Amino acid sequence: MSEFTTVKYKDKKTTFEILCKPSTVLKYREGEIGIDKVLFADTVFKNYSKGEKPLKSELLDAFGTDNESQVIKTILDKGEYNLSTAERKEKVEKKRKEMVSYIHKYYTDPRTKTTHPVTRIESALSEIKLNIDPDTPAELQVNKIYSTLIEKLPLKKSEVEATVTIKHAFLGQTNAVIQKFCKIQRDNYTNEGREMLVTMVPGDYDVFTQELHKITKGDYEINITGAGAMMASTDEPATQKGKGGRGGKGKKK
């Protein structure tokens, strides 16, 4: 293994280089380590192999400053470098997990109107021998493989519709949770509280009801339109318990 990795930043016709310790740039960019753990040398080069360093005027023209510490940070944040085999493998695995999470969150099984278990989604992606691009957004890659994936895993992009009733005592505390996970289609205030017709993506249902339960101690009501309880992120379906349980009263229409 080389004792350092070169990170290059090109501005117009001038290329600037810094030297970093192997397998540290990705960790730095993902917030795992600080800049002090990354740099092999705190010097900016134009061409390290020739020992060429930039003029101050070149730094000012490219970065708006000749402060070498600021220039190094810009190069480290925005420059290009070659991933090591281990780094690329790590990025690919992270992107795979993002794709699994995206499918679980936004798609249901049209036969059961529930989300597929995470393990089933992972298995389907493995079966189609997916070539994952670590730098392309998960949504775009899922859209690209959709026609192939549905041969292994029936999918339908859909939303859950439900009526949520919250008592007056919890309105202020639950408002942020409702805004985070739901789109409010209809809103009505009654003597007992607030009744809302909402829609949400399937994968948010379980977390949403858990958050409501924390605030209300289960003293709320949710009625799912048409379908049964959403599937939890494990292989077991999320059950709809009575008052005080995870899903509030959890009645179905």
TrEMBL record:
Record field: compositional bias (Basic residues)? 243-253
All residue ranges annotated as the Ribosome maturation protein SDO1/SBDS central domain in the record? 97-156
Q: List the residue ranges of the region (Disordered).
A: 231-253
Q: Name one Pfam family in it.
A: SBDS_N
Residue stretches making up the Ribosome maturation protein SDO1/SBDS N-terminal domain? 5-89
Q: Name one GO biological process term.
A: cytosolic ribosome assembly
Q: Matching InterPro entries, A to Z?
A: EFG_III/V (IPR035647), Ribosome_mat_SBDS_N_sf (IPR036786), Sdo1/SBDS (IPR002140), Sdo1/SBDS-like (IPR039100), SDO1/SBDS_central (IPR018978), Sdo1/SBDS_central_sf (IPR037188), SDO1/SBDS_N (IPR019783)
PANTHER family the record matches: RIBOSOME MATURATION PROTEIN SBDS (PTHR10927), RIBOSOME MATURATION PROTEIN SDO1 HOMOLOG (PTHR10927:SF4)
Which NCBIfam families did the record assign? Answer: RNA_SBDS (TIGR00291)
To which protein family does this belong? Belongs to the SDO1/SBDS family.
The name under which this protein is listed is Ribosome maturation protein SDO1
